[in-house]
TrEMBL record:
UniProt-annotated stretches for the region Disordered: 57-79
Keywords (A to Z) from UniProt: Cell inner membrane, Cell membrane, Membrane, Transmembrane, Transmembrane helix, Transport
CDD domains per record: TM_PBP2
SUPFAM superfamilies in UniProt: MetI-like
Name used for this protein in its record: Microcin C transport system permease protein
GO CC terms, sorted: plasma membrane
Residue ranges crossing the lipid bilayer per the database entry: 9-30, 143-164, 176-202, 232-255, 290-317, 337-363
Source taxon at top rank: Bacteria
Amino acid sequence: MAAYLLRRLLLVVPTLFGIILINFAVVQFAPGGPVEQMLAELRGEGQSVLGRVTGEGGGEVRAPASEMRAGTGAGGDAPVGTYRGARGLDPAIVAEIERAFGFDKPATTRFMEMLGGYLRFDFGRSLFRDRPVVDLILEKMPVSISLGLWSTLIIYLVSIPLGIRKAVRDGSRFDVMTSGVVLVGYAIPGFLFAILLVVLFAGGSFLQWFPLRGLASPGAAELPFLERALDYAWHMVLPTLTLVIGGFAGLTMLTKNSFLDEIGKQYVVTARAKGNTERRILYGHVFRNAMLLIIAGFPAAFIGILFTGALLTEIIFSLDGLGLLGFESAIRRDYPVMFATLYIFTLLGLVMQIVGDFTYTLVDPRIDFEARR
């Protein structure tokens, strides 16, 4: 097993390199990069530079110093951020903006410098927030980790027992009723359910039982530990419930079908013929085999909830996490933040797949990855 894990860890390096290379190449041909956006703003075609100093969401957003100094164009003196109409820009200003964003260098040079920084986990500075990317990621990570961890944990704790019970009582009234509930939960989009929760329980039109913004109340840092924990749980109820409703349906049906498939196999018939109890058969024989497929989906489920699943949830509940950071960075073409979040999630996904393979052997020691050809 040690040699297999070592090979998988070594395979992470070329995989990361290939993903970053492909995305870097695609971005080079994508229109509307940071330089183009800045030039549009200087021409008066976009949001003013000065208006962006205090960014959306309350966070400080600063343009590079060269933007603030580029105060004149070919048409005469005018402060940055004022309307310039159709007047052109001095080529020197364009060159200075390109230098400030690092686009005065060839693409290959920029790519190699980026890789060198990634080896040291140095992701540079945000183009539009003027802060180290690492600081931004560390600031947003607790929100996304909280959502992903608690949601995945609750989904598995609910879905696996429910799926097992549905498999054991297949075709019963309990199975039919729970299948209806599961299908309704699966059919409702997560963002629509989030809006429904806001309307019903977060002061939308009816009740105001839960807060709508952030993971802590103002002044919560001064509270005792138990009160801080309760305040945190109070803020997490609606976002977590949103992700759980959308995620437990698929895992419940996967668990049921996996157990049904194993229950119908010959070794179960043999175990019954030997006088084993149904509980012994279910948890001593069927469980180990049926859980392999469910464990295989854990890394994808966790990463999906952590990033793609939590994106709209973070927006609706005003949770400033990695999903929202990555989305805003893509819209603003903040390449250092874009590639850093891509790198982090790719690395985390690859590691979680290795963890999933290792968990295989814990559930079923008969699995030997060393013997695979």
